[in-house]
């Protein structure tokens, strides 16, 4: 009984924190996932010396400066050691890649550069190297406003993402929208259902005890509704990411986010 | 090599108590994670953390598998003399990871 | 929805939570008491002087922010020698032991711990004079609703 009472008080406090956030956001009712977290997890994200995602930023910075491929070129050789040229780049991905005539996500763009410009082996999706580089690059966008979708050439991809978002999937026959649009802010078990704004990716997820991509996070939802997950890097994930980033347009990037 | 992030104030007054924070990349494999074919993933954790400053080990910790992955430890320290803090993490196999940070005491 | 202790995971509406493999073995309150007795080394732990700051409702048991503060002047004559954390329901009762001394200036440590279940966590501090002081906290461990299969 006592535990139940404690939990009720703590859950009420979480709700109040989310409500306070909504009021301070000045008219924009959209709330990032961090607004739904406990005070302790918010503090962990806010403090760069406590945010475990910063270890991946550090790892990515080392990789950025390290030569790769037969020519011994590093990312820094072209883009500069401080990577200032990467500021805001994550906030506009997925982006339209004119050479391929299709949308490409940030990790895909980095993998492409590694393979085609550096001649290095293609880094594995969700592998340490690509995650660390993506986190390092995305960290340079912290505080930038999401702008994906301003490029009209991305419209068909965003539309494909919207259709996927609304499609009922899996043995539970649930769509993304049924949870994250219709029931955002409500409880699923003890967790609050967030609005699914991908402003903190790659995130350090306590459940993973590691850094991971939005594709891995969506994969978690897909297996949750007992659907067959797409392969990492699949165009379906890129479309969903493009739709969600367009939906989060104007919100602030917070990479590396910490999530429960 | 794993990455470490330590936080030491660059400057302090003599006698001032400052906060020291240290975080290091490590999976802290508990030894209790079952393998699909039976048995468990072998345990590999950082079992010891030490901080040396001004001629002595001023803080240490014995860690068990219940310490989270990428261990984070913060503690307080009285600033006595300008110099280097040496942080040391030691794993189950005896491998040592060291990190250093300077403090200026006036 | 409220957790009913001692279940590790909620059975959720819609069956969204997939059960994870259970721990192979468990500490018990008795094992925790034995570990604490060994730490106290004959002294009778007294309530007080130790403050254990840990969330009541834990979002994820993989990283629970935990702070221990002990009321001590931290002088050569009177200081905290060791702080230990124990739990009652992980595979092992020990969490960590922190070795302090007068050069710490303040008896304060902060870390992140793993808690496999809703349970009670204990913090014990041994002083230079051999006396042992204790605090404990009951907490509820919840998990994200969608666990990867």
Explain this structure.
The complex is a heterotrimer of chains A (260), B (106) and C (149). Chain A has 260 residues and is mainly alpha-helical. Chain A has helices spanning 2-24, 39-46, 53-65, 75-79, 106-117, 128-139, 155-166, 176-180, 214-224, 235-247; strands at residues 95-97, 102-104, 187-188, 191-192, 203-205, 210-212, 257-259. Chain A has 2 domains: 2-50 and 145-259, Cytochrome Bc1 Complex, Chain D, domain 2 (Orthogonal Bundle); 53-139, Cytochrome c-like domain (Cytochrome Bc1 Complex, Chain D, domain 2), CATH 1.10.760. Helices cover 44% and strands 7% of the residues of chain A. In chain A, helix 3 (53-65) crosses helix 6 (128-139), helix 5 packs across helix 6 and helix 7 (155-166) packs across helix 10. The relative contact order of chain A is 0.18. Chain B is mostly beta strands and 106 residues long. Chain B has one domain (4-105): Sandwich (Immunoglobulin-like), CATH 2.60.40.10. Chain B is 0% helix and 53% strand. Chain B has no helices and 8 strands. Chain B has a 5-stranded mixed β-sheet with strand order 2-8-7-4-5, with no helix packed on it. Chain B has a 3-stranded antiparallel β-sheet with strand order 1-3-6, with no helix packed on it. Chain B is elongated. The termini of chain B are far apart. The mean pLDDT of chain B is 97. Chain C has one domain (24-141): SoxY domain (Immunoglobulin-like, Sandwich), CATH 2.60.40.2470. Chain C has 1 helix and 9 strands, in the order H-E-E-E-E-E-E-E-E-E. In chain C, the strands form 2 sheets. In chain C, strands 1, 3, 5, 6, 8 and 9 form a 6-stranded mixed β-sheet that branches. A 3-stranded antiparallel β-sheet of chain C has the order 2-4-7, with no helix packed on it. Chain C is mostly beta strands and 149 residues long. At the A-B interface, helix 3 of A face strand 1 and strand 3 of B.
